[in-house]
Specification:
alpha+beta; two-stranded antiparallel ribbon; 3 helices; about 15% strand
């Protein structure tokens, strides 16, 4: 976990360096939208949107895994089958 956190910190640092070394203004066009901003703003915003998309995809995968766990249908309100009948132990002489 600490390795992953360190890797994310290094990646964020690299994105920040790239963004601030490229202060030129750019125009971003998407469908009918158009926005003019510096490369720094566009780079940091796209990195943040990418991180959010990755977090949502991870959350969705965990949710699917959680709902497919054995016994999850019983917790979701599905009818529970009765336990199998048990036979009484034989009497001792």
């Amino acid at each position: 976990m600490q390795v992953l956190l360190a890797l994310v910190a290094v990646l964020m640092f690299a994105v920040a360096i790239f963004a601030f070394q490229n202060p030129d203004s750019v125009t971003v066009r998407f469908l009918h939208w158009q926005i003019s901003a510096t490369v720094a703003v566009v780079t940091i915003a796209s990195a943040a949107v990418g991180a959010l998309a990755a977090a949502l995809a991870s959350l969705a995968a965990r949710f699917v895994k959680w709902t497919r766990r054995p016994g999850a249908s019983a917790r979701a309100g599905a009818p529970v089958a009765p336990p199998p009948p048990t036979t009484p132990p034989p009497p001792h002489p």
